[in-house]
Amino acid sequence: MAVSTGKQTHDNAVVVPTRPTRADAARNYDKLVDAAQELFATDGIDVALDKVAAQAGVGIGTLYRHFPNRTALVLGTFRSYSERLNAQAWERLERGTAIDALTGLFEDYMSTAATKRGMKEAILAAVGADAEVFEESRAAGRALMAAIIDAGAREGTIRSDVEPGDLSRLTGGLSMTCVPEDSATERARLIGIVLAGLRP
């Protein structure tokens, strides 16, 4: 899959961007990754970068200051996407139950599966399976799944032989089964089947 920006001066290195700490820069970064995620879903990973900038309400120069090439934008958007979904699951776990957190996580990943697949394919094509963002995502996922399992054990809602890797694979498996035509009802039915198998 092509990941070129069309600008040679920006294509020489793979950069894993980080969110700025300065408030105005952080706002622009967030607007860019939000716009990129939306357009990746509707237009594909190869969407014109000036369209991403326009959707975010910033100039193309601002985009390049944060993301020097298309690969950097995909990496930054994937990182933001993963962090956001994990943060939502942690919040559900703190406010509710293990099953609440797991149900929400499954639903989040299933409803955005096509976008995630496109980003992942672009990252694999550009920097391979050992990309830093994948390692970060896997580590954060293991910590989250371990916490969900611990909570489920205390609540008596998750089998004692379930491991963090099991939940990660189930999340990925559910995502891979999704197609854009799936309804929320169909996703909920599949999630219910998986949850039934996780109960003691």
UniProtKB/TrEMBL annotation:
| GO molecular function annotations of the record | DNA-binding transcription factor activity; transcription cis-regulatory region binding
Q: InterPro entries in the record, alphabetically?
A: Homeodomain-like_sf (IPR009057), HTH-type_TetR-like_transc_reg (IPR050109), HTH_TetR (IPR001647), Tet_transcr_reg_TetR-rel_C_sf (IPR036271), TetR_SbtR-like_C (IPR049445)
Instruction: Cite the entry's keywords alphabetically.
Output: DNA-binding, Transcription, Transcription regulation
**Residue intervals of the HTH tetR-type domain:** 26-85
Q: Which residues bind DNA?
A: 48-67
- What is this protein called in UniProt? TetR family transcriptional regulator
- Say which species the protein is native to: Gordonia jinhuaensis
